[in-house]
């Protein structure tokens, strides 16, 4: 997918405003005109991959590993207190007492999957776990860690997570000041 700086929308060729993945299932880089690098050979130095262990997040990480082989890649998992509250309410007091430890264990397990996938490409990646609202946590991490490219799935696992992460991808795409590639 190529970036057309002449396009009125300033988005990657083939992507409509607000669309976070191409209709043919290929990755779609949503790039606002102010984010278009002036160097046609631009490659990011620091890439953040939002990683929740879903098949789309695995595809996003694979895309980043193949497309940006020289970049430093960080796979990030966000512990969302909202989904944890839902789990606590469903599980009762015993779950409430251990929700954060359980969420950290889950994050470590999911990020181990990311590390294993990167090892298949003979690449070392960094991992990060943040707590908070996913879109906000991703954007704050980007600002605090000199990230210059985001890669993420267009939606997450299923049910409430899919709905929440779908809105996360849209929010990140709209608010990021750097290029965002959404894998659909």
Task: Spell out the blueprint of helices and strands.
Elements: E1 28-30, E2 46-50, H1 55-67, E3 72-79, H2 81-91, H3 93-120, E4 126-131, H4 134-144, E5 149-153, H5 159-175, E6 180-183
Describe it.
It is a single chain. With about 180 residues, the chain is α/β, with parallel strands linked by helices. It has a single domain, classed as Rossmann fold (3-Layer(aba) Sandwich). The protein has five helices and six strands. A six-stranded mixed beta sheet has the order 1-6-5-2-3-4, with helices on both faces. Helix 5 (about 160-175) links the parallel strand 5 (about 150-155) and strand 6 (about 180-184). Helix 2 (about 80-90) crosses helix 3.
Sketch the topology as an H/E string, one letter per element: EEHEHHEHEHE
Overall pLDDT score:
77
CATH topology: Rossmann fold
Give the tally of structural domains. 1
Morphology? globular
Rounded to the nearest angstrom, the distance between the terminal CA atoms is 14 Å
CATH class: Alpha Beta
Low-confidence stretches: 1-24, 161-165
Oligomer: single chain
Query: How many whole angstroms does the radius of gyration measure?
Result: 17 Å
How many runs of DSSP E, i.e. beta strands?
6
């Amino acid at each position: 997918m190529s970036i057309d700086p002449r396009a009125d929308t300033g988005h990657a060729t083939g992507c409509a405003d607000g669309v976070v993945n191409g209709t043919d299932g290929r990755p779609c880089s949503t790039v606002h005109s102010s984010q278009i690098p002036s160097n046609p050979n631009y490659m990011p130095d620091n890439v953040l991959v939002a990683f929740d262990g879903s098949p789309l997040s695995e595809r996003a990480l694979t895309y980043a590993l193949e497309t940006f082989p020289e970049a430093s890649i960080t796979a990030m998992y966000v512990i969302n207190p909202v989904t944890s509250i839902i789990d606590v309410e469903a599980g009762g007091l015993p779950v409430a007492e251990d929700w954060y430890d359980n969420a950290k264990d889950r994050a470590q397990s999911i990020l181990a999957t990311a590390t294993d996938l990167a090892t298949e490409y003979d690449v070392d990646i960094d991992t990060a776990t943040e707590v908070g609202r996913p879109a906000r946590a991703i954007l704050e991490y980007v600002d605090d860690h000199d990230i210059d490219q985001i890669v993420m799935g267009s939606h997450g696992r299923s049910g409430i997570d899919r709905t929440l992460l779908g809105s996360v991808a849209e929010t990140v795409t709209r608010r990021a000041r750097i290029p965002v590639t959404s894998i659909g």
